[in-house]
Design a protein that fits this description.
single chain, alpha/beta, Beta Polymerase, domain 2, 7 helices, 44% helix
Amino acid sequence: MAINLKTCTEKELWEYVAVYLKKKGIDTILVGGAVVSIYSNGAYHSGDLDFVKVSMFATKLEEGMNELGFKKHGRHYVHPDCKHLFVEFPGGPPLGIGEDNTIVPDEVKVDGTVIKILSPTDCVKDRLASYIYFKASEGLDQAVLVAKNQDVNLASIRKWCKAEGYENIFEEFVKALKE
């Protein structure tokens, strides 16, 4: 799988990196703002890709990233030809959103290889968690953007907000969704 690193989208870079790492035995899940970019069909651009490693024992990660031409700078992996996006691996298992550690990612087959991404519903929860816990107002906007472009389970989102102790945030989200 070849891509133009100078002009690639978040989706193209996700598929390129995730497929390569999976073939090296490193299973990842795409989370964060890049998921919003993918689910909003490029209406939002994150600037980075956040991957959660499925296994804490992904010892060949740096080797794999280096083979793709990415070099580690602090906590980011950067590529000299991909100046508009960088890659990060923030934390490891378990994958959680707020207090919920039972997240099951969606699986997508790319060139015969299965890679993982947050579901649209979990992406909305993740962005609402950013709004709740980091006071990032753009989190609410991103949650709405995803919900307007994808099928999401509103009952699941309401249940999650209630379990987190922020049912009022669900009401705010629904109101913003109707605007």
